[in-house]
Write a structure and sequence with these properties.
The protein has 79 residues and is of the alpha+beta class. The protein is 23% helix and 15% strand.
């Protein structure tokens, strides 16, 4: 199946196989913080964090260093 997605001033054509069960379209005008919270609430291919980590467990959070363009300051607070 092929669908057209708005992308800036044009459209992108993407092809999905028939096994695709869900497609999420993110609103580009939403604040990045909201988009990160949505991604954490609906992980792809993994259980929710609260199902993996229990109170009292230790965790390690790995993020990019200053040499990579990554909005760590936005991604860490929702965790």
């Amino acid at each position: 199946m092929e669908i057209l997605l708005p992308y800036g001033q044009r459209q992108l054509k993407i092809s999905l196989d028939y096994e695709t069960r869900q497609v999420m379209l993110l609103e580009p005008n939403r604040p990045p913080y909201d988009l990160i919270r949505l991604a954490l609430a609906a992980p792809i291919g993994s259980p929710h964090l609260h199902e993996i980590v229990r109170s009292g467990h230790s965790v390690a959070i790995v993020t990019s260093d200053i040499t990579r363009t990554c909005p760590t300051h936005l991604m860490l607070p929702p965790l």
